[in-house]
Design a protein that fits this description.
CATH topology of the domain at 6-104: Double Stranded RNA Binding Domain
Shape: elongated
Structural class: alpha+beta
Distance between the termini: 85 Å
CATH class of the domain at 6-104: Alpha Beta
CATH architecture of the domain at 6-104: 2-Layer Sandwich
Order of helices and strands: EEEHEHEHH
Strand content: 15-25%
C-alpha cells in the first residue's frame, strides 16, 4: 500500500508523497501527562487538485457529502485513535485511501425490467383470494 513512490490507491493510481501533507499535533481528550507533552495525533491534508486525480474522479469525490472536505477542495483527516504517531499516520493514510477508493467505485447502472405476465396473474389471484377471505369475516346472520 505504501512505498517510496507514494500511496497506492489501486493498480493504476499512486499518489506521490509530495501531495500529501502530514503534520504531527497533540491529541485531544483523556491521556494524562502523555497527551499534554507528546504530539502523537496526525493532521493529514490532501488537495484533490492533485494531477494524479482525474477530473471525473475529482468531481465524484467533491460531490460526496463528506464533512472532511473543505470549500477549496482539500480533504482534512485527523487521526488520534492510537497512542503512537506511527500508528496514527498509518490510520490517516488508510482513511485517505479508503475515501479515494469510494470515488473510484461506480455502481452498475440499473436495468429496468418488467414483471412477467404469469407473475402479474399470480399477484392478482392472491389479492382476489385475500379479498374473498376477508369478505367471509363479516357478522354471521341467524335465520
Amino acid at each position: 500500500m505504501m512505498n517510496e513512490a507514494g500511496l497506492r490507491i489501486s493498480n493504476q493510481l499512486i499518489i506521490p508523497w509530495q501531495y500529501i501533507e502530514l503534520k504531527a499535533i497533540r491529541a485531544q481528550g483523556a491521556g494524562g501527562q502523555n497527551v499534554n507533552k507528546v504530539s502523537s495525533a496526525i493532521h493529514l491534508r490532501f488537495n484533490l487538485n492533485c494531477p494524479q486525480i482525474s477530473d471525473e474522479l475529482r468531481e465524484r469525490l467533491l460531490a460526496s457529502d463528506d464533512q472532511r472536505l473543505t470549500k477549496d477542495g482539500c480533504l482534512v483527516i485527523k487521526a488520534q485513535q492510537f497512542r503512537t504517531q506511527e500508528k496514527n499516520r498509518e490510520d490517516a493514510l488508510l482513511r485517505l485511501a479508503r475515501f479515494i477508493r469510494q470515488g473510484l467505485h461506480r455502481d452498475k447502472p440499473r436495468v429496468a425490467t418488467r414483471p412477467t405476465r404469469a407473475s402479474q396473474k399470480r399477484r392478482v389471484d392472491t389479492k382476489t383470494q385475500r379479498g374473498q377471505i376477508k369478505s367471509l369475516r363479516g357478522r354471521v346472520n341467524d335465520h
